[in-house]
Amino acid sequence: MTLVTGGRSRERILLYGMEGVGKSLAALDIAARVAPARVHIIDNDNAWDRMLEGQTVDGRQVEVCAEYRWSTDVPGKGGSWEFDGRWTRDTGNVIVYHAEGWEANTSAIEEIRKDAEPDDWVAIDSGSALWDDVSEWYVDNIFGASKADYFMQVRAQMEKDKAALGALDGWTDWSVINAQYKAAVMAFLITPPCHLLVTCEEAQVSTGQVKGKDMEDKETRGLYGTVGFKPRAQKRIGHNMQTVIRLERKANGDYCARTVKDRGGREYWAGESVMDRGFSEWYLEEVGGWQEKSGSSSPQASSLASTSPDTQTALAPKSPPAIKPTAKA
Ligand SMILES: Nc1ncnc2c1ncn2[C@@H]1O[C@H](COP(=O)(O)OP(=O)(O)O)[C@@H](O)[C@H]1O
Ligand SMILES: [Mg+2]
User: Fold this and answer.
1) Distance separating alpha carbons of residues 276 and 292, to the nearest angstrom
2) Rounded to a whole number, what is the distance in angstroms from the first to the last CA of the chain?
3) Eight-state DSSP code of residue 268
4) Which of 37, 204, 236, 321 sits CB 3.0–4.6 Å from 115 for a disulfide?
5) 185-224 burial by CB neighbour count: b if 16+ within 10 A, else e?
6) CA-CA distance, 36 to 55, in Å (whole number)?
């Protein structure tokens, strides 16, 4: 059985919440249900070696059909993808890009844009790390220091001068960072080549004012004001997505979901329990109207299919995208 959408438009979902609320697990759960459609994962938070060792809430395991690690080993070259075939299986439907740094993230986005089919999924896990990576990359390129070192230097200088010396500036710095992000990421979020899931950590919505001005802009307050928490990423991210859901783990251990916004006609969840339920079930099926279709996706069925030439293309996962492995010096 494989889960399919009856709709014409693709999903664009943002899941946010604290560490350990089930964001990555949602991507794993989707992968277990939508095969033979593929799930392209941008793992920029070093979570997916662990995720792939684990199981979904209902005990399913997923397999990779390709895995790439970003390598900056070759001198004079920014970086490139190295194919890691240690765990790949022909029956797998997950492609993982273990991305480190902004260039790896944008390169993975480009690869996925070229490779993804409309019924595939792409999961950016996480959108917060992606946003950190672009500012880190900027400071590194402009100031020749890591972001942590840069902020230390600025702070130390402030102490010396006894003056307020601005760190990253709204006009000269953040506008450039935003432009980089916009060119590489925003268009992809708005018009992805397939279904899209983005995860984000959360941050508190500030209610205070500075110099008589609200700390949060009107759009942020409008969308997240009543929730009290917003995704920690570029501030437009919630507006770029069609569905925004906050996941939370309650003090009693219950996992809950609250819809912040969704496409027209879809039911909103007000913090209901999703304990021991997979995202594909409680959201895609129950809210999004996705349905199971026979035309089996089990590994057994797809390996049978691959022996029969006429059914092969429909059932067998596609071969991994052709990325030239780095020639090791
Ligand atoms: N809906 C759920 N029901 C039961 N356990 C869950 C649920 N969601 C998450 N968990 C548990 O929480 C752990 C952490 O989930 P994970 O997706 O890695 O968190 P995140 O990516 O949000 O940091 C999972 O391994 C699982 O044990
Ligand atoms: Mg995670």
Assistant:
1) 20
2) 46
3) P
4) 321
5) beebbeebbbbbbbbbbbeebeeeeeeeeeebeeebbebb
6) 18
User: Which residues, judged by CB distance below 6 Å to any ligand atom, belong to the binding site of ligand 1?
Assistant: 19-25, 54, 57, 255, 274-277
Q: How far apart are the C-alpha atoms of 62 and 60, rounded to whole Å?
A: 7
Q: Enumerate residues 6+ apart whose C-beta is below 8 A from 102.
A: 133, 134, 136, 137, 180
Residues whose CB is less than 8 angstroms from the CB of residue 65 and which lie 6 or more positions away in sequence, other chains included: 38, 88, 89, 90, 91, 92, 93, 94, 95, 317, 318, 319, 320
The answer to whether 136 and 102 are in contact (CB under 8 A) is yes
pLDDT tens string 103-131: 999 999 999 999 999 999 999 999 999 99
CB-CB contact of 199 with 15 (8 Å): yes
Query: Ligand 2 center to residue 137 CA distance, Å?
Result: 22
- pTM of structure: 0.85
| Two tokens, residue 64 | 């990779």
Residues with CB under 5 A from ligand 2 (ion): 23-24, 47
Residues 252-291: tens digit of each pLDDT? 999 999 999 999 999 999 999 999 999 999 999 999 999 9
What does 181-236 look like in DSSP terms, one character per residue? HIIIIIHHHHS-SSEEEEEE-EEEPP--EETTEESS-HHHHHHHTTTSEEESS-TT
Please give the distance, rounded to the nearest whole angstrom, from the Cα atom of residue 22 to the centre of ligand 2: 7
Kindly state the helix (H) or strand (E) to which residue 237 belongs, with its residue range.
helix 237-240
27 Cα to the center of ligand 2, angstroms: 9
Nearest CA to ligand 1 atom 26: 22
**Strand pairing of 80-83 and 64-71?**
antiparallel
